[in-house]
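In this supplementary section we document a worked example of the pipeline. Step one takes a protein sequence of length 264 as its only input; no multiple sequence alignment statistics are reported here. Step two produces a three-dimensional model, which step three serialises into structure tokens for compact storage. The input and output of this example are shown verbatim.
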Amino acid sequence: MSWLKVYPAGIRSSFPVGMAIFASTPHRDQLGGKGSKIEVEFKISGNGNLYGDGFAMWLTKQRATPGPVFGSVDKFEGLGIFFDTYKNNRPGTVFPYVMAMVGDGSKAYDQPNDGKDNEVDGCSARGLRNPQTNTRARLTYFQDKNLSLDLMYKAEGEWTRCFEVSDIKLPTVAYLGFSAETGELSDNFDIISVDTNNLYDSGNTSGSRKTPSGRKKGKKSDPVAKEGGSWSWFLLKVVLFFAVCGGAYAGWTFYRTNRRSSRF
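The serialised model returned by step three reads:
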């Protein structure tokens, strides 16, 4: 028996699966801006030397429905990230293998060759199954610019870049979902947590919105500095005014004294 296990709001739920779907939630807010960062904590585990097939993370225009591609529908429109643990026919490729596919709604997944004809990019991730540490995936997407995936499975806090590709276009309104498939084998797929964040500028990975001037939105100029500068300029003008007045008075006094002396 195989299981797809999820932890919504900290509550663990389990579903016996040959093919299974977890979650298909609207992702409008994240992809409605300039970019999105999605971080997923997961775990792939099981017993024995034969296991499979893997799980997938989806950002698609349609809601997830059961199907033959890691438990979800084929010929999808959007992005599929496949964590493939079973090797069918990809000579020279080390599994587990993580890859991205961008579907246009009519393109079928190349299942006999583990998606080789559909792959945008990918990487081998030996040690992703039955890891010694927490495993996470971090997907970063800037609309119509670039897509990158980082994995953490070697050591806690150690991120490994899986791939980065440019000129990727995804639906501006998409659904975030997860699915898993085991076929005739068995394995355990745990989706432990999912965090999503908006990104507004490709040079600003912190996700802080910026104004056109480049200053962070909501960050005001320092009123103390402005006030101090204004008072300094005011005091300088006062000092200059009295200096001029004093010089003029001294000059007038000197002139009057000389004039009186000349009379005598």
